[in-house]
Amino acid sequence: MTRVGAVGFDLDGTLFDHHGSARSAAAHFLGSLGVVASDSTLDSWFAAEEQHFERWRSGEISFSEQRRERLRSVLPPLEVHVPASDVEIDELFSEYLRAYESSWRAFPDALPLLRSLRASGHRIGLLTNGAEAQQLAKVRRTGLLVELDVVCTSERIGLSKPDVRAFSVLASELAVEPGACLFVGDDLVKDIDGARAAGMQALLVDGHRRRELPIGDLVRSVIARSADAR
Question: What global pTM score does this model have?
């Protein structure tokens, strides 16, 4: 095991509480349309988000179109009319987006962890399968950006997790060999399998923090083991 010199993070579900922010926003948005935001309704919302976001990530549709497709998938079964024109659908989605942005929050342990890593001399990077403008806005709004040395979005680098080349770009921009980088994420395939295939060490965390796992302790434990193994 190589000593860890840098730590890379996924954003949504790892440092940033996307599910909590989106759930609050979706409940507000659907309520404004006269829909009760039940668990099953919110499950449908997140299923559509996952499906159409992946279509954008794979290059099948544009970022704006994946947003439109989410509304086209979710609203008609709830007996909510979806406008015919793209402009009107975009205006409708903007109502959800405003609620989502007002709910943005990092996990409580995220900023203290980044500060601790910086204090111990580790370089810190972000690798996220997201749009450049939105992901940068998230880390800026939540105060995380100032603690990051590198921010790699799939839109900027032209590669998405779990592609090993995406992780290689992250390591290169952090100026470390992949083996000296620990990657932390909440998705077993995109984050963990991808990082390990690229030669990185990897740590899987609970994206919803249901058990409130102390990820700072987990990260520091991996770093300590890598130092002891030298």
Answer: 0.89
